[in-house]
Amino acid sequence: MAKAEERLMVLDTPTLYFRAFFGIPDTITSPDGMPVNAVRGTLDFVSHLITAYRPDRVAACFDADWRPAFRVEAIASYKAHRVLEEGPAIEDVDVEVVPDALSPQIPVIEAVLDAAGIARAEAPGFEADDVLATLAERWPGPVDVVTMDRDLYQMVDDAREVRVLNIGKGVAKLEVVTDAVLREKYGISGTDYADFAVLRGDPSDGLPGVAGIGEKSAAALVSAYGDLAGVRAAAADPASSLKPAQRKRIIDAAAYLDAAPIVVRVVRNAPVVEHDDRLPRTPKDPVLLAALAEKYGLKTVVARLTKALAER
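Given the sequence above, the corresponding C-alpha cells read:
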C-alpha cells in the first residue's frame, strides 16, 4: 500500500494536447516535416507540472470513448456538435472532430510518455474525466487533478486534499481550485458542483440547463435547498419559498433534470486498466526515448522532461 502522504497527479491528457495544438503554431515540425507542436507543448506542460508540483505519482488519462453511449442515451445532444459528420463511421461509434495535423501527433505523445515511464490510464467505454475521477476517488493521499473542464470541480474536497489545477489560462498561470475557492467564486463547495452544473447547463457540452437559470441563480438554489433533489422538492411544494417563475421553470424541465445528472456526474468507479503510476527518476526506456527525440526533433523538450523527472 502506498504511503498516504504521496501526492498523485492525474492529467486530462486530451485537454493538454488540444491546448498545445491550438496554442503553438503547427509550423513547428519534425525533421521530415510532420507537425509536432502538440507533442512539444504537451511534453513541456508535463515537465512544468512535475517541476512545479513535485508529484510522487502521475497518470496521463485518455479517452477510451470520448462520447460514451450511456451519456448520449441520457441526452442525445451531449457533445453532438463535436461529432465528425463526414467520412465513414467506425462500427457505429461517433468519431470526434480532430484537426488533421493533430491526429498523427497523439500516438507520438503516447510513445514518448511510455518511453519516459509516465503511466497512461484509460477505462473501456469511459471518458478521460471518468478516469481522472476514479483515480482521484480511490487514492488515499493528496491529489492534483489537471484539467480545464469545470465539471471536475465536483471532485474538489479540501478534507481529502483533492484539488483541481485549472489550466484554462495556461499551465504557467493555472488556478488552484479548492473548496475555499469554489465557495468564494460560486458560494458552493465541490460536493455541490454537479447539481449546480446540471441546473446551469453547459452549451459547450450540449447541455441546455434549466431555462432562465444561470450561474448565480443555480448556486443560490443549491445553497438554499441543499442539492438537486431538494430544489426539485421545493418546486413541487406549493408552500416552499421558491418564486413562481422559478418553480415553473424547474417543473417544466423535469425530463432534462431526470437525465442530466447521468451526463454531468463523473463516474468514480470506472474500470481503469491496470497501470503503474509511480513516477520514475530516470526514463523507463532511455534508448527508445532518445530515438523518438531524434526522429521527431524533440531533443530539447525530452531533455527538459528528463531533467524534471530527475529533480523532482
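The chain is about 45% helix and 10% strand. Try to locate this feature in the C-alpha cell string yourself.
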